[in-house]
Design goal:
With about 170 residues, this protein is an alpha/beta fold. Helix content is about 40%, strand content about 15%. It has six helices and five strands. The structure holds adenosine-5'-diphosphate. The site of adenosine-5'-diphosphate has 18 residues, from strand 1, helix 1 and strand 4. Adenosine-5'-diphosphate (ADP) binds next to strand 1, helix 1 and strand 4.
Amino acid sequence: MEKSGKYITGVYPGTFDPITKGHLHIIQRASKLVDRLIVGVAPNTRKGPLFSQEERVKLVSEDIANMHAKHCEIEVEAFDELLIHYVQRKKAQCIFRGLRATSDFEYEFQMTGMNAQMEPDIETVFLMASDKYQFVSSSFIKEIHALDGDISKFVTPAVLSALEQKKNQRKS
Ligand code: ADP
């Protein structure tokens, strides 16, 4: 994909419960490919998120506040409609997804296929997870943290302290 004359908008959707350094790495890389990147935070009640949608938007916004993204505007917002409708409404040309080893493949393959049937003009762009974050997932981070493991390598200090707060709330 080349940024040549045309203004390109991409959407990076996810649950971000909570945002990890793996997600941040994808945001950084996607920002080099488009003029405007919208990080769309999904409600995803199916996954029973730990953080409310509002809290997740806040954490993503805080995490990207210091990101150097030359020539790209990055926005964060909540959405709760069908992804493809959201992408159309935002007049975006592509969807970014991160791909870790084989675990994500089946789901991503199906989702991309369905989206392409509904809207063939919107491309899904996969960025392979870096080897550093290949095994990092929000769900593992929550599990490890709940059992007092050290996750400071995988999330920013803001996310770590939000997780601490949740844990303390649950205890009290
Ligand atoms: P979803 O519920 O949509 O899968 P996630 O927040 O779990 O939302 O992930 C959002 C996107 O980021 C997905 O494409 C997922 O595969 C990708 N992703 C998650 N963790 C990582 C990681 N460590 N490295 C690269 N991509 C990741």
